Amino acid sequence: LNSFGCGLDAVTTDQVCEILEGSNKLYTVLKIDEVNNLGAARIRIRSLLAAMNQRQARGIRPQPKPAAYHRSEFTKDMYLSGYTILAPQMSPIHFDLLEPIFKKYGYHIEVLANDNRAAIDMGLKFVNNDACFPSITVVGQIMDAVLSGKYDTDKLAVMMTQTGGCCRASNYVGFIRRALDKAGLSHIPVISLNANGMETNEGFKLSPGLLLTALRGVVYGDLFMRCLYRVRPYEKEKGSANALHRKWLEIAIDSLVNGKSKWSYKAVCSGIVEAFDALPIDEALRKPRVGVVGEILVKYMPLANNHLVDLLEAEGAEAVVPDLLDFLNYCVYNGDYKHEFLGAGWTSAATAKLGVDAIRLIRKPALEALKKSRRFAPPMPIEKVAELAKPFLSIGNQYGEGWFLTGEMAELILSGTPNIVCIQPFACLPNHVVGKGVIKALKKAYPQSNIVAVDYDPGASEVNQLNRIKLMLSTAKKRLAEEEAAAV
């Protein structure tokens, strides 16, 4: 039995099916919903009973076989022989910086550029359709590339992040391995990029140098996102903001990968902010500011959110997307709560404090530059975001985006962005609590808020998504006009 739209069951039912069928046993799944018509369920049960009787009459017996999975490890020899490592796209504005960093440290990473509808269709072939949209998208990107004929599959590996929580996203690695196995390519190693040591590979190590450089790359990406989205809707010369981004992207990459670069990390942070601060824009023009929050991949990946930022700008709004590094900040910060309330050791709290302080130190040049600027504001400290979330839910909500999603919405509202699009994959269980579940309470606490929840799925109606967003924007524009009229 499984529940309709249950993403966790989407993982386990497939595994149960493989185990049973591998041992020559029957497998039947009944998907339960709130409907009263049980005719389909009766038919499936009768079919199961008929099959059981037929097997018994024919003398067919189960043949138990081991169901253990032996993964292909990414070895040191693979690293030395220059294996190509495919990584799915998630946030172009950040991954444009991360790809050259990994190459600097000897990993032939290729961030896939096939973030298109064909990738989603490919994902549907290999992933249970009840799995969340990000899982389908990621597996689709990878399998589309692997099966394209572009790569030598005997010198190919795949890399994917893995959190280890109960969210479906923790099963990305398993989904990818299962898809490769289905395609007869189980020899391709899948590297789990994780921070908790849940899986290791001899040929892949996150050295301190790589980690620090990657974090600096994420800081640059966050700065680009914060500055570019702030000025682009108001630019006097169309395309000037994107051109400025491209210019500073080259400088940022040079500072990250070139040991002899004339650009220091601090200088690049200041330079990015100062350059966008000086870009000619229409200072008198006001547009409604719309925050984008939600499940991390749908939030940052244009393919998964139907190019939401472009849509908002085309509809006459300014998009505000919170920093990617703050999600890492949230993950680290949670260790303190786990120590105090969930029985984790003292090292969990110590790691949380050190981690938050380390991230703050790495971000310091960017935060200082933002504070000095005319147009931009730095993000709130993670401790304050947690305090904003506490009136609405427990900080113990730590799966998926957890309490951080609620805190982000409160932060946006209090920082002058009362209009919010809360986006999530269809049937995303954590977001039903920490996203959709708190919207009513947020609106009550902050009457000026204007929040709409939008689901994304391979089969979701784009027209319906657009209508919901446009309805929110019409309210936002009306309120902005009222504010301007009152100010006259």
Number of strands: 10
Instruction: Give the CATH class of one domain.
Output: Alpha Beta
User: How much beta, percentage-wise?
Assistant: 5-15%
Radius of gyration computed on alpha carbons: 24 Å
Apparent shape: globular
Mean pLDDT, rounded to whole units? Answer: 91
Distance, first to last CA: 63 Å
CATH architecture of one domain: 3-Layer(aba) Sandwich
Specify the CATH homologous superfamily of one domain.
Answer: Response regulator
Number of contiguous helices: 19
The topology string of helices and strands comes to EHEHHEHEHHEHEHHHEHHEHHHHEHHEH
What brief labels describe this structure?
single chain, 488 residues, alpha/beta, Rossmann fold, four-stranded parallel β-sheet, 19 helices, 10 strands, 54% helix
Question: How would you explain this protein's 3D organization?
Answer:
It is built from 19 helices and 10 strands. It has 488 residues and is of the alpha/beta class. Among the domains are: 2-58, no CATH class; 76-203, Rossmann fold; 287-322 and 379-487, 3-Layer(aba) Sandwich (Rossmann fold). α4 (92-104) runs antiparallel to α8 (208-231), α8 (208-231) packs parallel to α10 and α10 crosses α14 (346-372). The longest helix has 27 residues, at 346-372. The chain is globular and about 85 Å long. The relative contact order is 0.09. The model has no long low-confidence stretch (mean pLDDT 91).
Give a brief description:
54% of the residues lie in helices and 9% in strands. The protein has helices at residues 7-22, 39-58, 76-80, 92-104, 117-126, 133-146, 172-182, 208-231, 240-257, 265-278, 296-300, 308-314, 325-341, 346-372, 382-389, 402-414, 429-434, 436-445, 462-487, and strands at 2-3, 31-32, 84-87, 108-111, 156-161, 190-193, 289-294, 318-320, 419-425, 450-456.
